[in-house]
Amino acid sequence: MAAKDQVMKGAEEFYFAGNEIGVLVIHGFTGTTQSVRFFGEQLAKEGFTVYGPRLKGHGTDPEDMEASTYQDWIHTVETGLARLREQCTNIFVTGLSMGGTLALYLAEQYPDLDGVMPVNAAVNIPEMAENYRNLSQTDTRFVRGIGSDIKKPGVNELAYPKTPVKAIGEIVSLTEITRKNLAEIAMPVLILSSAEDHVVSPDNSQMIYEAISSREKSMIVLENSYHVVTLDNDKEIVADNAIQFIKAKC
Asked: Residue 130 class from Cβ within 10 Å (0-12 exposed, 13-18 middle, 19+ buried)?
């Protein structure tokens, strides 16, 4: 584990300069940019300008995450969006897990975005909410980590080995806020969902599909991967479909 405030190797933000089409790629809860770097690199190979920010409190030490709020994470992605706007005329947002939640949040707040692509996004996590309610009544600060839900053997996600209890409350709040406003999303949406996911129930993707107001919406089910699909057997399928989606809209 890295020292407090020191970014772990592989967890650094990434930025690939390209054309006027920008893509914000957001990693997930307790994870790092390592989980979405391949995705970002594939997008960049198409000539897009790609930015993968490191969410506040992530990629350093769990105590840093304990001190972070969902508002901090929103600020991180809003800052990333502003950075892309400086260079690009067309903007798409995508993210894995809580990164997908944040992508949906941005879509709710910024209707001028050209499209959103949530990947195993969380908008309804009742078991996690119940766990938080129970744990918050105790002195427990950390619980076991949730990283590396990956089907492909020998592949590991760079993520915290333990999860701050306080942070669980933060992601629950973020999902609730985002879920309430899904109907505000009217832009083109591509939902990518693993058929088997041990972290975020696939029901979330169906809920998103049904709640958004977009006329252009589609969902692709990934049959050979678990939650961290961007590192799993279907990572090329995720990238290829995202690229096709972006090209069709520009």
From this structure: exposed
Binding residues: 29, 98
Does position 203 have pLDDT exceeding 90, yes or no?
Answer: yes
With residue 97 as reference, give the H or E element that holds it: none
Which pLDDT tens digit goes with each residue over 130-169? 888 888 889 899 988 888 889 999 999 999 999 999 999 9
pTM of the full predicted structure? 0.95
6 within domain boundaries: no
For 20, the token pair is 């006027």
Rounded Cα–Cα distance for residues 96 and 81 (Å): 16
Within-domain flag for 154: yes
Rounded to 5 degrees, φ, ψ at 133 are -60, -40
Please give the sequence-ordered ranges of beta strands (E in DSSP) within the chain, or none if there are none: 14-16, 21-26, 49-52, 90-96, 115-119, 142-144, 162-164, 189-194, 217-222
Give which of 118, 37, 48 is closest to 89, Cα–Cα: 48
In a domain, 4, yes or no: no
| Total domains, the chain | 1
* 126 sits in which H/E element: helix 126-135
Domain with 112 in it: 15-248
Residue type, 84: L
Q: Which residues are identified as catalytic?
A: 97, 197, 227
Beta bridge partners of 190: 218
Residue ranges for the binding site for substrate?
Answer: 29, 98
CATH of the domain at 36: 3.40.50.1820
Q: Is residue 5 part of a domain?
A: no
